[in-house]
Amino acid sequence: MNERIGNDLCNEIITQAINEMKEAQGDTFSLESINLAELERRTGITRSRLRRLQQNGFKSTPHGRTGQKSDSTVISGYTAVLDNLLRQGITNSTVCFERLNELGYAGSLSTVKRYIAKHRDLVPAKRQLYDPQGNRGIRYKSLPAESYQMDWGFTHVIDPYGKESTVACFAMICHHCGKMYVEFFPNAKQENLFIGMLRAFAYMGVPKYVLTDNMKSVVIKRDFENHPIWQPDYENFMNTVGFNTRLCKPRHPYTKGKVERLIRFIKDNFLVGRCFWNLNDLNDQVMEWCEKQNSKYHREIEDIPDYLHASEKTSRLQESAALMYYLCPLRQISFDGFINYEGRRFGVPYRYTGRSVRACRKGDTLFIYTPDMKELLVTHEITWSRKDRYCKDQFPDAPALEEFPTAPVKTSIRQLAEPDYLKAGFEKFNFEEEDSDE
């Protein structure tokens, strides 16, 4: 279409210039011997192109290779990867573009979008249960540094042997600026909730309120006036850190919709096609992803979350011994000298006589302390193997095995002096006794 319009305009310009030259020259004008230099000055078209058009009677025709496409393009070597992502239902062009960039793709995002639009037939059909209905609700808003939202999400993990397990994803987001913090745990126990919240507060600051739904680790029930009765450990945690909690309806987008949308965004953007070695590697990847998302421009807030959050006056988390108790949860020592941490067993030295210890993982190292956190008992390098991890001096030195009589001894034997004929050489003669006789 654009080529045809261009050709028509070129023909019109050339025809007008030829008519002007014909009127000026009169009967001496000849199309075969036309002055190409004068025609170039009038039309602005190069002389080489005019010479080529003269062979066709000054009619611009489409290029001979118009409409033909190259057999190989910049995306040709990555079509199998894109087809595989589309068959998995991944149609987010940004996610596909990032996956291709990791494989060395040098093309543009628009090329990926055009390819996805042409191959929609590969995407599995989604079942539409009902038509979405509109609403006119007013969303909850908050002031800067006033409230954060937190929630749990879950995903399945398939190990190299095909066994499936579940991993919990802790997510917290600032309600005002949208700055986020995400961390993965082997489960959603209360101790992991405390660890995730403390690390999020250290990353973003401590707010006035935290919005969450009715978690079992947060609230027990409500009294007759509909006031929440907090879980005792969580209430102590709130008083220690210095924040309050507001409960919201589950899956209610008008109060804590930001964190619920964040959970879905993690599943649709970060987790699709994700591979990792261990939980620590997965947390490193998600932290890098959070830094990338926090430094992007968001149209919703018309700013960058990192810059907007830096202008908020959030109180910093003050380190204290009380907070270390939450970061290092208690573990009971088994009869064979092991503790269980994140689904694996680690040994404790035999010299420690207590029944419980505190354990904390930092990176790939596990630190085991006494319950009062005053002594470091042992450290373990985490290999994420299911085998038990022993430590030095985990078991006492075994005594030498010896049998003793279990009944009274009633028999006896006599031992004689060694006879002389058993002595060798001069040992049978006692020269000292002979000298004493003289």
SS summary, helix count? 13
Radius of gyration: 41 Å
What is the highest CATH level, the class of the largest domain?
Answer: Alpha Beta
Helix and strand sequence: HHHHHHEEEHEEEHEHHHHEEEEEEH
Structural summary, described in words:
- By secondary structure, this protein is α+β, with helices and mostly antiparallel strands.
- The protein folds into four domains: 2-54; 77-122; 147-310, 2-Layer Sandwich (Nucleotidyltransferase, domain 5), CATH 3.30.420; 328-381, SH3 type barrels (Roll), CATH 2.30.30.
- Helix content is 34%, strand content 17%.
- The protein is built from 13 helices and 13 strands.
- The strands form four sheets. A five-stranded mixed beta sheet has the order 3-2-1-4-7, sandwiched between helices.
- α5 (93-102) crosses α6 (109-118).
- The radius of gyration is 41 Å and the shape is elongated.
- Residues 1-6 have low confidence and may be disordered.
